[in-house]
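## retry 2 of 3
previous attempt timed out at serialization; input unchanged, resubmitting
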Amino acid sequence: MEEKKGPPLSGCRFFIVLFVAAFVLNWFWEMFQMVAYTEMAGQPWRETALRCTVASIGDALLTLGAGLLLAWRFKHRGARTRRVYLQGAFIGAACAVAIEWIAIFWGRWSYSDRMPQIPWLGVGLWPILQLTLLIPAALWIAAGWSGRPNRLSSRGV
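## retry succeeded, writing output
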């Protein structure tokens, strides 16, 4: 069975939609997981929303970077949908682990008892799942909304 072509990883509209989709998805995820961070548990909604907005902008920029990296990687050859999304998930997981390690090391945040942890990595499960799942989800949304869901680039490569 032949796989469908991957998302259109080019064009201004694609990257705008990618950024917006990533921001919205990450904002909701951030708001729901804030109770799992010691510093945010019990904080007023407005303060939590502001911090989640800032974090979501960072997550959206990271997703945009992943999209640009994937566009560069698949620029001159066809990519299959599964490969693009799996590589997006891998980029998200790797970035999330690195961000968590750095943030914990520098004391930027700590986990409450509501955060399941991955013992062999020493990081929380929710932030790892966040970028692992939401980068491919944002790519999928951007592919659908950019109007070229079956082509990798504007040239149809």
